[in-house]
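Module 6 notes. Inverse folding takes a fixed backbone as the condition and produces residue identities as the prediction. Think of it as a translation problem where the source language is geometry and the target language is the twenty amino acids. Below is one complete input and output pair. Work through it position by position during the lab.
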């Protein structure tokens, strides 16, 4: 009963539509992507950009893990939560999605206005001249350089970032930019880097034009999300939280409502009410 009342109250916030939405890893767990910080997730240290740039052995492990992980990711697709948010935007109930995820699932679900705070893992760029390629292209080059490697390691454990935990990478050859020969890296924000200013400003603009902010599947352990919450607080708009497990703002008076449940199931139920 309490859950139903909370859903009705959440639906009531949409009277102030459009609302802004901030999503985190919790919305993608139902698509089979593990969560770094969710309940039961093993402790892991995020990759730093200094490790990636300064340690060739680290880059070998990274690309080997990315290639093997791609075998498992082939079946990953947007779930009911992603699809519901795309329909909310199409109906004018939200003004788009701000996401901390790099999995590209919001775009694949049909969301048109997507602000990717931490970039997009399906895009690879070179560090010298910003030449850009798709992840599939670069992984194809990995296969050409390391024939049979992916097949030999297809049973490796998959980490929360979607890549595999592989060993025996000392002889791995890493792909480089075919245009200039420089290091290739995913177009994402790693530990030790900052969200690009224009990206954050676009996210701010969505919050500034919204009648409320809904936080979905995020524990708000990342400072960028907290900054957006502050912008909403300064405007005095309602803030709702949908997350399985605690978040960094649960005790704040500015939180209008809190639903402790899975993102996809809650958004499905919310959509039924809003129809």
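Target side of the pair, the amino acids:
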């Amino acid at each position: 009963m309490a859950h139903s009342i909370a859903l009705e109250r959440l639906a009531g916030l949409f009277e102030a539509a459009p609302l802004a939405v901030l999503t985190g890893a919790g919305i993608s767990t139902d698509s089979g992507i593990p969560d770094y910080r969710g309940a039961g997730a093993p402790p892991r240290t995020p990759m730093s950009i200094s490790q990636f740039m300064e340690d060739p052995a680290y880059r070998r492990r990274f690309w080997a893990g990315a290639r093997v992980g791609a075998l498992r990711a082939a079946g990953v697709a947007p779930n009911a939560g992603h699809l519901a948010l795309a329909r909310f935007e199409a109906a004018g109930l939200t003004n788009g999605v701000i996401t901390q995820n790099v999995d590209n699932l919001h775009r694949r679900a049909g969301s048109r206005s997507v602000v990717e705070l931490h970039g997009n893992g399906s895009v690879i760029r070179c560090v010298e001249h910003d030449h850009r390629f798709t992840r599939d292209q670069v992984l194809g080059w990995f296969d050409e350089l390391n024939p049979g490697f992916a097949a030999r390691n297809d049973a490796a454990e998959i980490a929360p970032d979607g890549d595999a935990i592989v060993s025996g990478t000392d002889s791995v050859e890493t792909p480089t930019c075919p245009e200039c020969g420089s290091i290739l890296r995913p177009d994402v924000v790693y530990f030790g880097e900052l969200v690009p200013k224009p990206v954050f400003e676009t996210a701010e603009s969505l919050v500034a034009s919204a009648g409320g902010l809904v936080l979905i599947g995020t524990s708000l352990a990342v400072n960028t999300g907290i900054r957006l919450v502050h912008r909403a607080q300064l405007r005095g708009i309602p803030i709702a939280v949908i997350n399985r497990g605690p978040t960094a703002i649960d005790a704040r008076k500015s939180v209008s409502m809190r639903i402790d449940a899975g993102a996809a199931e809650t958004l499905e139920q919310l959509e039924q009410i809003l129809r």
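Reference fact for the lab report: The chain has ten helices and eleven strands.
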